[in-house]
Amino acid sequence: MDIPESVNNGRQGVDISYIVTIGRHTSLVRPGGVWIVLTYNQSRFDFLTETDEDEEVGEGGIVIPKAYWNVEEVKAVDAPSGAKNGVSNVGVPVVQHYVFVLRRTEFVAEARPE
User: Would you give the distance in Å from CA 15 to the centre of its chain?
Assistant: First the structure.
């Protein structure tokens, strides 16, 4: 992503994933806080559990979201089938949604010097 020079004061832009942006914005939650998410995507928060990196800060000085959040629990729940009353559910696949319980870590990012 190229950021106009008038916006970035002449600094070079850094590509940031939307997931990293969400992780940063939700980092404003106090340590110990809980984020409960209902999603259709079982792998929504794989980036919090499957990285090999142990560092909190990644490329370009961007804090890695897993530094802020731990996945405490994932529970599958059956979604409504959409079948109408009196209509058989035979052959209708079971659709599940997922409830993620995330807990804010104690990590606090330091402000970067200008």
Answer: 17
**CA–CA dist 69, 16 (Å, integer):** 18
Closest CA to 96 of 80, 73, 77: 77
> Quick one: tokens of 9?
């004061």
Select from 56, 66, 54 the least CA-distant residue to 102: 66
What does the pLDDT read at residue 80? 82
For the entire predicted model, the pTM comes to 0.66
Q: Give the integer Cα–Cα distance in Å for 13 and 17.
A: 13
CA–CA distance, 90 with 73 (Å, rounded to integer): 31
How big is the chain, counted in residues?
Answer: 114
Q: Of the candidates 18, 26, 19, 17, which has an alpha carbon nearest to the alpha carbon of residue 103?
A: 26
Q: How many CB atoms lie within 10 A of CB 23?
A: 21
